[in-house]
Amino acid sequence: xxxxxxxxxxxxxxxxxxxxxxxxxxxxxxxxxxxxxxxxxxxxxxxxxxxxxxxxxxxxxxxxxxxxxxxxxxxxxxxxxxxxxxxxxxxxxxxxxxxxxxxxxxxxxxxxxxxxxxxxxxxxxxxxxxxxxxxxxxxxxxxxxxxxxxxxxxxxxxxxxxxxxxxxxxxxxxxxxxxxxxxxxxxxxxxxxxxxxxxxxxxxxxxxxxxxxxxxxxxxxxxxxxxxxxxxxxxxxxxxxxxxxxxxxxxxxxxxxxxxxxxxxxxxxxxxxxxxxxxxxxxxxxxxxxxxxxxxxxxxxxxxxxxxxxxxxxxxxxxxxxxxxxxxxxxxxxxxxxxxxxxxxxxxxxxxxxxxxx
Length: 358
Description:
There is one protein chain. The protein has helices spanning about 1-25, 25-30, 40-65, 75-90, 95-110, 115-145, 150-175, 180-190, 195-210, 215-240, 250-260, 275-285, 290-335. It has one domain. It is mainly alpha-helical. The chain is built from 13 helices and no strands.
């Protein structure tokens, strides 16, 4: 009930921000920003959005392969679209899309829960690491370019960025040394014997085995994450051009950085929050608030299209899950194995291959 209530409250907040921003800017200015925009331009933006999701799915597949699990790329793409749809429409359910992806792999491909959940956590860590690096660079450039904040505000932002980077550095330091983070918290909270503690420890072990400085697969994961950001940068740069504005690459990075920050708020489809942020950013960069609102509208339509496709897969998987659940109960009664679960797609990895970097 609380989740449902939080969804509607956040949706109302987003709609309020959207209406307020639109009225403040004026629909005429937003509409005039589309005078150079064409149907072909929209197709290009949609294709770049789809390409970014496909590269993310490819990254996830490489993570699973590293842990000895083999799942076809098209199936991975479907799962990623489904998880992306959950995160897009219901962002207040933290890690909802990731949990769905991990659970579906466990059910459909008989992949151990520790490997399955570890793969989506690794995927999220890779993405967040690159997101944060781009955000820090983009926001820093924006602040120097526009001279917007006061000295004190600049110091606060710098300290906040330093803290975030320090936390990321701490995680990688711990993972490279193989020092458990979860065990520390379980011990502090006295939860060592709680349900799920062993699974959490196993998942952490799988995560740490992925993050090894000498492993090619880890660096490939980072490379694919940067490729995703390059696709988003190309999307932002081209879209601003399609709206009849000129912008430099570095300024476009600032736009991408603030887009990442705008989706931090748990509002469905970043409704209103993204509009407010980009209207402000575009104004400060001299592009006009109307162009900022138009920019967000096009991005939202492209991402909504991909999320809608993802929801179709989500409902398809949901129906399959119900079938699997019902037949599983029936098969237990008559003593037959679950007909919907495929044989395990993972090989047992006792320890990391020390020569995996070669």
